[in-house]
Amino acid sequence: MEPTERQQRIFDETDAAAWVESGMTIAIGSPPPMALVRQLIRRGFSDLTVIDSGLSLDLLIAAGCVRKVVSYYAGGGFGVAVAPSFRRAVEQGEIEVWECEEGILATGLQAAAQSLPFLPWRGGVGTSLPQINPDLKIMADPISGETLIAVPPVKPDVTLLHAAAADPYGNVQHLGGPGWLDLFLHRAADRTIVQVERIIANEDTRANPWATTIPSADAVVRSPYGAHPYYSRGFYVQDQEHLQAYVKAANAAARDNRSDDLARYLATYCREPATHADYLERVGIKRLLSLYEY
Amino acid sequence: MSQDYTPQELMAVFIARDLRDGEVLRVGVAMPVVEAAVRLAHVMHGPNMELIFLGTRMNVAHLHSLPMPAFGWDRRVVRWAESYSDTGHRFDRVKDWHRHVFFIGGVQVDRFGNSNLIGIGPDYRRLRFRGPGPVGTATLTTHVGRYYIVLNSHTPRTLVECCDYVSAFGWGTGGADARQQLGLPGGGPKYCVTPLCVMDFAEDDKHMRLHALHPGVSQADVQDRTGFDLTTPEPVSTTPPPTAEELHVLRTRVDLAGLLSRSTKGE
């Protein structure tokens, strides 16, 4: 039967996570949409190819969800130069890396968005990147013969993002600018799920259409404090203590084979809470309210 | 210790003095010496500098003290931005990056200033040490007018004959035209700054060359801790120590948390 009215795109985080399947290519924006990331872990997905950088990537690796990583940067922070679970899994040969660089990744995402077999990029010429990632091809540009790198499409099956607000029809607004690669990840993906601090009315979208950063996301998930322990501009700052505790636990597991704290972290914050609200209860209202911006 | 400053403070002051008013300075993650250096230059002599920390572009010369951006892109950093660019905007005007200055670290740096953030070990599929990854360094070092290699430690493991993997091209296998031959428009690395000394690249073959020893450091110290034969001019100069004013500004307006002043020798 044909629908008689425009369909809303609001889903809860558990339904939205069901769009993902093991083996898919998943892209994670910044700040990481942690409510969705935690659902991926809770559901026990495996063999994912993950386009991400930083500690959300590390958490997915620690939880055993990842087979392949597309990342230009997996830094740790908090006194650790490299994300601990990432480092260990790569050194052990447990996960594969599609080695790239920021400009190269953006180029591959752009090629996917424009349905092109490749796009050229100069950054990386002269480096080892084309040797250690054979998908990157050195080419002579047909116009002037310059040496460039042909970057193939990098195409997520599903992109997961966090933003400030969206209306029920998937019109998304970021506050203080979209995340680093968010728009690239959205344009390249088959489907985009955006978790937001709040749902706004469609009238609010129409009052200022220039504020729409992503038109027609496929799903919108209501997730106040959903980026925790990361920040959400306009709402809260990063929870340094929480992130530091994670890095400490992940580091102990990766470097000293003491995995108790990491296992406890994964159980307490990712596997046991059934919903985002259950997660927030575990973090506690006091901690959440202490993360004010001003 | 007779000196009243740390090697990290000296490094920051050396870099700050080499930056000119009006320049656009692009700073990445986890480089406290560089973060301090650009801020010091900004308040000492660079009111028209533009500081870009991870896409947040700011001019904060009017502030009495300049907070260090240790919190990613949350409001504590972005509140100072005059503009904020995601990756799309960031790569839109690469053609103008000859006016920009960049700073890079490395797991390994070789004698021609190539650097490696990928990892160490002969077998890429089973690295002995997996590094954080190239970040945006391949693209930035390709295009910026000049860049500085800044290392937290000076050891034969870091300064090597030849990188296991190159994630940012310096001068390749040497030669003044090494970059031109590959069509890389940027000016390449200017200095390599470590806790022991400053090195530059010889005009003819672009081999790394001792430029100045930090006070109290001998040429033998440096050569012992360098994994290749360093070209050495005669006589070798000494890195000028910070002035009292530079140290005062650094400690009271820039490095409020004491990240540099509490550092040890860092060898």
Describe the structure.
The complex is a heterodimer of chains A (294) and B (267). Chain A is globular. Chain A starts with 9 loop residues before the first strand and ends in a 5-residue tail after the last helix. Chain A has 2 domains: 1-114 and 155-200 and 212-280, 3-Layer(aba) Sandwich (Glutaconate Coenzyme A-transferase), CATH 3.40.1080.10; 117-151, no CATH class. By secondary structure, chain A is an alpha/beta fold. Helices cover 35% and strands 21% of the residues of chain A. In chain A, 54% of the residues are buried. In chain A, a hairpin with a 5-residue loop joins strand 11 and strand 12 (172-173). Chain B has 267 residues and is an alpha/beta fold. Chain B has a single domain (7-254), classed as Glutaconate Coenzyme A-transferase. Helices cover 23% and strands 19% of the residues of chain B. Chain B has 8 helices and 15 strands. In chain B, the strands form 3 sheets. In chain B, strands 4-3-2-1-5-10-12-13-14-15 form a 10-stranded mixed sheet, with helices on both faces. A 3-stranded mixed sheet of chain B has the order 7-6-11, with no helix packed on it. In chain B, strands 8-9 form a two-stranded antiparallel ribbon. The chains are: A alpha/beta (294), B alpha/beta (267). The interface between A and B is large, with 56 and 49 residues.
Spell out the key features of this protein:
heterodimer; A: 294 residues; alpha/beta; Glutaconate Coenzyme A-transferase; three-stranded antiparallel beta sheet; 14 strands; B: 267 residues; ten-stranded mixed beta sheet; three-stranded mixed beta sheet; 8 helices; 19% strand; globular
